[in-house]
């Protein structure tokens, strides 16, 4: 190889190393950002689960109070029916929300279970099989 081609190869190698360092830094930032978003999602889900728990645990008491008021004549039938329908719709909505939370928790657990890809070869070899040389 000539002196010029060796210099060119060395310059290319240096450029690739710099690019690799930049890609590793970018991957690190992306991983930190994803961890932050996962943490925020976890906090949001926790709060949503608490809210759902409160709503679901008070629903039977609310329905019982509604039935008692209606049976004792303290509430007109039309108001009773509309309030009961509101409770029914809220319970249906809560059940859907519980299913959504369950799905999100499953996704989060799958993401948490994923192994980190920064091994001795670094992120540049992600998804590429290593050769048996």
Task: Give an overview of the whole structure.
It contains two helices and no strands. The protein is an all-alpha fold. It has one domain (3-113). Helix 1 (3-71) runs antiparallel to helix 2 (77-113). The longest helix has 69 residues, at 3-71. Mean pLDDT is 84; it is low at 119-133.
Overall tally of structural domains: 1
Low-confidence residue ranges: 119-133
What would you report as the Rg, rounded to the nearest angstrom?
29 Å
Order of helices and strands: HH
Strand content: under 5%
Individual helix count: 2
Largest sheet: none
Q: Helix content range of the residues, please?
A: over 70%
Distance between the termini: 25 Å
What's the β-strand tally?
Answer: 0
- What structural class do helix, strand and pairing data support? mainly alpha
The mean pLDDT is 84
Describe the global form. Answer: rod-shaped
